[in-house]
Amino acid sequence: MTVSSFFNRASRVLSSSNFLLLCTLSGGGVVAYSESQTGAERPSLQANEPSKKKVVVLGTGWAATSFLKDLDASLYDVQVVSPRNYFAFTPLLPSVTCGTVEARSIVEPVRNIIKKRKGEINFWEAECIKIDSSNKKVFCRSNIDNLVGSGEFSLDYDFLVVAVGAQVNTFNTPGVKENCHFLKDVEDAQRIRLSVIDCFEKAVLPSITDQEQRSILHFVVVGGGPTGVEFAAELHDYVLEDLIKLYPTVKDKVKITVIQSGDHILNMFDERISSFAEQKFTRDGIEVQTGCRVIGVDDKVITMKEKSTGEVCSVPHGLVVWSTGISTLPVIRDFMKEIGQAERHVLATNEWLRVKGCEEVYALGDCSSITQRKIMDDITAVFEAADKDKSGTLTIEEFQEVMDDIVLRYPQVEHYLKQKHLRDFSTLWKDLQGNESKEIGIEAFKLALCHADSQVKSLPATAQVAAQQGAYLARCFNHMDHAEEHPEGPRRFSGSGRHKFLPFRYRHLGQFAPLGGEQTAAELPGDWVSMGHSTQWLWYSVYASKQVSWRTRVLVVSDWTRRFIFGRDSSRV
Fold it and tell me: Which residues form the EF-hand domain (predicted)?
């Protein structure tokens, strides 16, 4: 056989049959090659893998970031859409306004966060402009300038997590948007920092009169909540500890005013903290005007009206910071109209954070509010479910058994029992009948719980609430398949079976109010109130530990240390 005929025959053998070649490489690896018969389809390695459900997350704030950090992304096809490619530790924004902490110290890139998660998460820097729940689609648009091609795109979803936050509420007050600073995000804090320096630089110009100096250096804070109070305190420390050393000629002309429409500042705190804050501000020379409502702002004057007398007065200002609450974003308002919630102020969800009217849409954080179902709406169904023998009355055993599920399904009942100092359900039973052995009917059952719904309260729009909601929803997503077969929630009183998950329950871990001068007030669980210098160190430790990464934790602590040693930086950069 000639050499050419041998190779011709060999080539026909290779083309007509499967051929496997194993070659040992120098590194010890093995290469395998398999060629299928002519016309046969090569099997796909992913043919038998079930397709993952698509989860779209809108936002990168507290709720969304907490959700992404705890979510097992290997179970889903996860896509994140937000106009900001970072997470910001917003409780430290007032510190950024005065250079106590640098802006970059409190932000963490979203891509750094998601790359550490199990599974793959895609991030798109864009703004959601429309939610189409009927077709399970979101429409987005990039805010990046000078893009080549269209910056608009759409994403399909199986589950949508809406955590876009909210915007500042101006109450349609004339001139606010044009002439006031807000303190909602990092860019706001940076603008305030530059404006404060500008005010001092302008005030020391030779052409500025004494009266003009007093107007330029009048800093007005509208809103006596935690953000407004903390900014006023930070600004006072900045002026006292740093700026008057650099601008000594105007040290006696600086004035800080806090305007509050209510009767007290920090009125969501314990009254002891509110009183302490007002007294400290008075000692520090910060003017607190309560019972006043701002009715207009221009570039030089702020106009307000006293509620008690109706008197209107105008005060010159150099800078106004508006911090009076939040309102719904336009994209959420449009979505609410689409699903029949146009009359509400925020998205309504049930106790499992699912948007009412949309089975596969969840809402977290400032853009939503949980509508807690009232027990008196279900009281008849609850009684009938508890009355197992259909006798028309409940024994103490039946009463205690149903109360366990009631407390899980209706958390206001637990708050009611604590308020009444009732140790357990048997104590409530004794209060009803005076004797443990008796049975009760439906009227007595209603009487026992008729006041429980008075404990239903809306959750505050805070980072603490949003973070807990994100962690809760992530756990639900991680155990969704398991919960289908093994539900862990309370009993369904209207129907059979149990709910898949326990309803969300907020656990209040306390709140801080830094008041300047290395003093902080704290309201902690158990009706514990702490105020003073020792609480400031507790604030330092808690806020350092709550940072989203070790990088930001180190940066924030180093900024605090730098400020103690060198003071704050007043450069206009």
Answer: 374-409
What integer best gives the mean pLDDT of the chain?
89
3-state helix/strand/coil string of 355-415:
ECCCCCEEECHHHEEECCCCHHHCHHHHHHHHCCCCCCCECHHHHHHHHHHHHHHCHHHHH
Q: Are strands 255-260 and 287-290 parallel, antiparallel or unpaired?
A: parallel
Q: At what angle do helices 186-203 and 226-238 cross, to 10 degrees?
A: 40
Interacting residues of 417 by C-beta distance below 8 A, sequence separation 6+: 428
Cα–Cα distance, 537 to 551 (Å, whole number): 21
- C-alpha 134 chain-centroid distance: 26
Per-residue model confidence as pLDDT tens digits over 112-133: 999 988 889 999 999 999 999 9
Q: Name the residue among 224, 269, 267 with its Cα closest to residue 529.
A: 269
pTM: 0.88
DSSP 9-64: HHHHHHHHS--EEEEE-TTS-EEEEE-PPTTPPPPPTTTTSPPPEEEEEE--SHHH
Please choose, from the candidates 179, 256, 182, 259, the residue with its C-alpha nearest in 3D space to the C-alpha of residue 219: 256
The residue behind tokens 């900001």 is 84
3-state secondary structure of 297: strand
Q: What dotted CATH number matches 375-454?
A: 1.10.238
Output phi, psi for 330, to 5 deg.
-55, -40
* CATH architecture for the domain at 50-168+326-372+458-507: 3-Layer(bba) Sandwich (3.50)
Q: Which CATH architecture has domain 180-324+509-566?
A: 3-Layer(bba) Sandwich (3.50)
* DSSP notation for 512-531: EEEEETTEEEEEETTTEEEE
